Amino acid sequence: MKTLALTLCLILAGAASAQAACYADYKAKRDDPLRLHYGVAEISAPCDEPEAAADELRPRLGSDDWVLLSIVSLFGDEGLEKRRDSAGDYYLRY
């Protein structure tokens, strides 16, 4: 019985680690004076749920008085590097 439980735990741990990384690129703003930024953030939400990604990013951005304007897209590791220059200081910051 212990062997079965251990095997099940290992299978579940392997499945969790095999889950692909997910990233969102987004637009945010600050008021007074108006400032805008484009950024890239790693998210734990499923990569096919933009609203879940937005819900995850709002408090992170809000901690520095940024307001999320929109999720531009969700993507995996394959799209990460090509967005680095565009995101600048906001590349994986939040």
List the defining traits of the structure above.
94 residues, alpha+beta, signal
Structural summary, described in words:
Residues 1-20 form the signal peptide. Keywords: Signal. The chain has helices spanning 2-18, 50-62, 84-87; strands spanning 22-30, 35-43, 67-75. The chain has 94 residues and is α+β, with helices and mostly antiparallel strands. The protein has one domain. Strands 2-1-3 form a three-stranded antiparallel beta sheet. A hairpin with a 4-residue loop joins strand 1 (22-30) and strand 2. It is globular and about 40 Å long.
What integer value in Å does the Rg equal? 17 Å
Q: Oligomer, anyone?
A: single chain
Mean pLDDT: 87
Lateral arrangement of strands in the main beta sheet = 2-1-3
Most strands sheet: 3 strands, antiparallel
N-end to C-end Cα span = 44 Å
Could you state the order of secondary-structure elements as H and E? HEEHEH
Keywords: Signal
Signal peptide: 1-20
Helix and strand arrangement:
Blueprint: H1 2-18, E1 22-30, E2 35-43, H2 50-62, E3 67-75, H3 84-87
Antiparallel strand pairs: 1-2, 1-3
Keywords: Signal
Signal peptide: 1-20
Task: Give a short summary of the structure.
This protein has 94 residues and is an alpha+beta fold.
